[in-house]
Amino acid sequence: MDNNRDLDLDSIIAEVKAQYEDIANRSRAEAEAWYQNKFQKLQIIAAGHGDDLKTIKNEIRELNQLINRVRAEIDQLSKTSGQLALKDARVKLSDLQQAIQNSKDELARLLRDYQELMNVKLALDIEIATYRMLLEGEECSGDEQLIYHEWRWSSEQWWIWSEGWWRRGRQWCWRQPGPDNGRGWCWRLWYKQWDHYWREQL
């Protein structure tokens, strides 16, 4: 009984193998036919492109001849009207330079306007923060509290120059920037706290 099973299995394997070989042979034949057809079409296209290449080469040769003639005419015209062309170029250059200068002036004006807006915004932010500290009873640098008077901002250093009334305990005093040497009291806003600094120059 086992021998019969072995014979059946061998015959099945042989049959499957024969089927796959037949499929492989047919696929190979179909692939060869497809590639042969494709190759023939490419040969026809290449022949047509060869004719196109010849035509394009002739056109390029004619264009080169035309370019040479135009260059000769340009050389001749430059000898007779070179000064006029140079003058026209200078006029165009002057117009471009003027347009660039106008753009720079407009940019400078916009920057000044932006600087003024930033100064106003910064002053409002400082005033709001100062009044909030006064209302909440917070202290600024020890037991001193500032009553806002004037702030001046240096955009180069991002520092704030202060001037105004200060209160220490029950006494009031006026504090302003130092003498002409530029010394004074400077403050900056850092993590929503006022840190006290002394700077030689702004």
UniProtKB/TrEMBL annotation:
Entry superkingdom: Eukaryota
Molecular functions per Gene Ontology: structural constituent of skin epidermis
Alphabetized Pfam families for the sequence: Filament
Endpoints of the signal sequence: none
InterPro entries assigned to the protein according to its UniProt record, in alphabetical order: IF_conserved, IF_rod_dom
GO biological process: intermediate filament organization; keratinization
One GO cellular component term: keratin filament
Domain IF rod: 1-142
Coiled coil found in the keyword field: yes
Family in the record: Belongs to the intermediate filament family.
Protein known as: Keratin type II cytoskeletal 5-like
Organism of this sequence: Crotalus adamanteus (Eastern diamondback rattlesnake)
